[in-house]
Amino acid sequence: MAIKDKEKWNKKYKNTPELLDDRPQSYKLADVIKHTKGLDALDVACGSGRNSIFLANNDFKVTAIDISEVALDTLNKKNNPNVKTKLVDLDTHSFDENKYDLIIMTNFLDRNIIPKLTKALKKDGVLFIETYMFHEENEKPPSNPDFLLKEGELKTFFDKKEVEILEYDEFFNESFELYKMRKQSIVIRKK
Ligand SMILES: C[S@@+](CC[C@H](N)C(=O)[O-])C[C@H]1O[C@@H](n2cnc3c(N)ncnc32)[C@H](O)[C@@H]1O
User: Fold this and answer.
1) What is the pTM of this model?
2) Domain holding 36: CATH number?
3) Whose CA is nearest to atom 1 of ligand 1?
4) Is the CB of 73 under 6 A from ligand 1?
5) Count of domains in the chain?
6) How far is the CA of 36 from the centre of ligand 1 (A)?
7) Which of 25, 139, 152, 163 is a Cys-bridge partner for 188, taking CB atoms 3.0 to 4.6 Å apart?
8) Host domain of residue 41
9) Residue 106: what pLDDT?
10) What span, in angstroms and rounded, lies between the C-alpha atoms of 173 and 26?
């Protein structure tokens, strides 16, 4: 499964190099970082690192993880001293617990790792997830319907005894993306 992911993404980045071009960070990230209390950050499925670079430029020490060497090579070439990359298969990766002040996962969905991401946060750490959801106006059918969230779904992964939900939103994606798609985002703080 993950070898397939690696081949799929390396091929996708080689065939569509525009996907590796510099792009703006998630528009929500500037507000997300206002909630954080420390600078240790993890960017999960970072791609070529648009969000990692934004965090690094805001003084975070970022660990950026992804399964694609092609994406990580592009990020490494940016030589940002605040970004450390790691080739990781999220299907099998074990996350250290109580380690990060901020974890982000954007434009990628693996429902199984969401509880592990909460555990990987320090107390008061913040988790931000933003990715695509089902919507009748979506312009691109998913390669796999499991990759799309259902309405309200991100809120269902968290136990309110363990986390506080700081923000939740459903919205249409940024205009620089190739297809109009509905997205969902959540920001939580670990108690
Ligand atoms: C659409 S890109 C998102 C990149 C970045 N987060 C952003 O918002 O620009 C999805 C990324 O997930 C990575 N990915 C897919 N399956 C993975 C796996 N099993 N383990 C680690 N990364 C994976 C791909 O290599 C790809 O870079």
Assistant:
1) 0.97
2) 3.40.50.150
3) 107
4) no
5) 1
6) 24
7) 163
8) 2-190
9) 98
10) 10
